[in-house]
Design goal:
This protein has a single domain, classed as SH3 type barrels. 12% of the residues are buried. The chain is built from two helices and seven strands. The protein has a five-stranded antiparallel beta sheet. The protein is α+β, with helices and mostly antiparallel strands and 93 residues long.
Length: 93
């Protein structure tokens, strides 16, 4: 297991994949597999067999994301504030 800088309840930004740029709160963090589940992001559909009480069907739930694909929101904002915008970069040339 590696030392970590993120924990359950932290606000993170997805930095890679289909959900890139979106923010969410960490629901679970599996230290052994280094995977996090982010609230409301990376939704997948699960087909559940109908039970006797009538529950079942197709449901959506959050899938896990590798921790290398998320960054703390505070670090993300600090990094974005240091980058020059496209207009400023063109003006200096």
């Amino acid at each position: 297991m590696a030392k970590t800088d993120i924990k359950k309840g932290d606000e993170v930004v997805i930095i890679a994949g289909a959900e890139k740029g979106k923010r969410g709160e960490i629901l679970t963090y599996d230290r052994a597999d280094e995977r996090v589940t982010v609230k409301g992001l990376n939704l997948v559909k699960r087909h559940l067999k109908r039970a006797q009480d009538g529950t079942g069907g197709i449901t959506e739930k959050e899938a896990s994301i590798h921790r290398s694909n998320v960054m703390l929101a505070s670090l993300w904002e600090a990094r974005q504030s240091k980058k020059p915008t496209a207009k400023k970069a063109k003006a200096t040339k």
